[in-house]
Design brief:
Helices cover about 30% and strands about 25% of the residues. The chain has eight helices and seven strands, in the order H-H-H-E-E-E-E-H-E-E-H-E-H-H-H.
Length: about 220
């Protein structure tokens, strides 16, 4: 079946046509953009256990990856520089490969319970300096490398998205059991999941054990 294709008559292709659809930007929305980490920005980052990092490869193919760790896991090296530890994952290395081709990155820091977020844009470098990595150890395990970000833009992002989504409201939490497990979803979409429920349950249990062994 053919996918949706927008009518060219209704496609916005230039900045001026886009801006004509919206009211003028509030002056503070422009002024708030800083080129270094203020005390407030550093405080926000030090409280955050979660950041999303957006990258692109040389051809412009985009990717966004979540990174999480104990509160304050992103190290503030100075007011112009951050370091993000790279913990064990599935070794696709999408983010890291993209950075080797295109060092421009976008970060969004999230704090549980906060509706506003902090956005940081900058230039990333992959670093395996032993002293830096050792300072980012958890459970006596240092990361293999760190993503060091030279900060170019920093600004707070308003609460509207989080309030619309009611992300932190317990009465809007959804029951994870209403969807298949991660393992079953992947198998359904690739090689096929086993029909035997006990076999499937064992695979789910094995994944949970793997989480415990390989978080760091």
């Amino acid at each position: 079946m053919q996918g949706y294709k927008p009518n060219p008559e209704f496609v916005i292709t230039d900045e001026q046509s886009l801006r004509n659809l919206f009211a003028a930007t509030h002056p503070l929305a422009i002024l708030k953009c800083q080129d270094s980490l203020s005390g407030h920005a550093q405080d926000f980052i030090s409280r955050s256990p979660f950041v999303c990092i957006g990258t692109q490869n040389a051809e412009g193919k985009a990717d966004v990856s979540p990174r999480g760790d104990p509160v304050g896991f992103v190290k503030i090296l100075d007011k112009h520089t951050l370091a993000i530890p790279d913990r064990p994952g599935n070794n696709r290395l999408d983010t890291l490969v993209n950075i080797t081709a295109n060092p421009n990155v976008g970060l969004m820091f999230v704090i549980p319970g906060f509706d506003d977020t902090l956005r940081v844009n900058g230039h990333a470098t992959l670093v395996n300096d032993p002293d830096l990595l050792e300072s980012m150890s958890v459970n006596d395990r240092a990361p293999k490398l760190a993503i060091v970000v030279e900060v170019r833009e920093v600004f707070m992002h308003c609460a509207k998205a989080f309030r619309r989504s009611r992300l932190w409201s317990p009465d809007h939490f959804q029951n994870r059991a209403e969807m298949p497990s991660l393992v079953k979803i992947i198998l359904d979409e690739t090689t096929g999941a086993p029909s035997d429920k006990d076999e499937m349950r064992k695979m789910d249990d094995d994944l949970e054990e793997d989480y415990k062994r390989t978080l760091y």
